[in-house]
Design the sequence.
């Protein structure tokens, strides 16, 4: 299974072989920062004190073109000055991606500048950070609407079909542990209602475009009063307001979510207007994201996040589904 200790050891060995591509000695200090879709390491050259962050891509998740497209957008955002984020770093030969062959696996490795800070504390007052996050989201969306992507730009679409539908990138939510036949029947009703809502809302250019799609707490770094957004690995084409649903990933049942949405909208509206019709879709998008993450937990069971969330998260999805069906009765088939 991917990301078990033996595989992580192979990753670290491959990473050491890749370090000279960025001018870093192979004896640099490596610290595993996170395992999610990818494995991310802090690398420190003990002779110079230089630090960078290196990302070992999940095998076969993104193509070279998709990774290069992600980095092209991140570079454009940094040039615009609209968002504080890490700088993608080319190898000494000018490449964005360095590959290491490891038996049947090709490791794709990318590197970024080190950004100081820490994840906002979940048990702290998150409202000020969500206000800043809403403003950052709005600036990202403004940039997305006017940016002319380079030739060959390609990123995944995160729409109904690819989130929880027949072409879901993260698998079938029905595979989640502990779901009973009754649970699956209920969530299939939720899925059908979400499909109706998403189809009615549509994907016009004022509602749907290139977004970060994963601005959860783990991908935010705060230092003093500064907020940085990192990890654009899942950026792609989706609804702009879906970004808020991603912002509360794994904490959808936190009683503070309405206040966090209020703060996020306050920040967003300080930069760009939001129509009431768009805000009305936030609740369905939260349910859509929850079901997508339920599928992710099933297909990424080896990751610490999936193991930590486990059965309790799946039971929470069913609970949310029951409430959703009650609140959106008018959209029943």
Sequence:
């Amino acid at each position: 299974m991917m990301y078990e200790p033996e595989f992580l050891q192979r990753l670290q060995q491959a990473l050491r072989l890749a370090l000279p591509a960025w001018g870093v000695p192979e004896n640099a200090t490596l610290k595993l920062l996170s395992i999610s879709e990818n494995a991310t390491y802090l690398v420190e050259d003990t002779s110079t004190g230089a630090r960078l962050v290196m990302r070992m891509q999940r095998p076969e998740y993104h193509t070279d073109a998709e990774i290069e497209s992600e980095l092209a957008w991140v570079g454009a955002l940094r040039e615009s000055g609209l968002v504080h984020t890490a700088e993608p770093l080319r190898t000494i030969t000018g490449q964005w991606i360095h590959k290491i062959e490891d038996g049947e696996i090709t490791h794709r490795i990318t590197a970024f500048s080190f950004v100081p800070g820490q994840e906002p504390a979940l048990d702290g007052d998150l409202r000020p950070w969500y206000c800043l996050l809403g403003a950052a989201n709005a600036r990202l969306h403004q940039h997305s609407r006017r940016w002319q992507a380079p030739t060959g730009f390609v990123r995944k679409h995160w729409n109904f079909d690819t989130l929880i539908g027949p072409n879901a990138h993260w698998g079938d939510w029905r595979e989640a542990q502990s779901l009973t036949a009754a649970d699956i029947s209920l969530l299939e009703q939720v899925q059908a209602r979400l499909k109706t809502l998403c189809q009615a809302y549509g994907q016009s250019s004022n509602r749907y475009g290139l977004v970060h799609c994963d601005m959860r707490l783990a991908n935010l770094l705060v230092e003093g009063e500064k907020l940085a957004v990192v990890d654009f690995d899942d950026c792609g084409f989706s609804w702009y307001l879906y970004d808020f649903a991603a912002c509360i990933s794994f904490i959808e049942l936190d009683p503070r979510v309405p206040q966090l949405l209020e703060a996020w909208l306050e920040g967003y509206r300080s930069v760009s207007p939001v129509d009431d019709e768009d805000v009305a879709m936030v609740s369905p998008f939260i349910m859509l994201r929850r079901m997508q993450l339920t599928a992710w937990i099933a297909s990424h069971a080896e990751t610490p996040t999936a193991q930590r969330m486990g059965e309790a998260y799946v039971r929470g999805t069913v609970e949310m589904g029951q409430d959703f069906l009650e609140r959106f009765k008018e959209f029943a088939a």
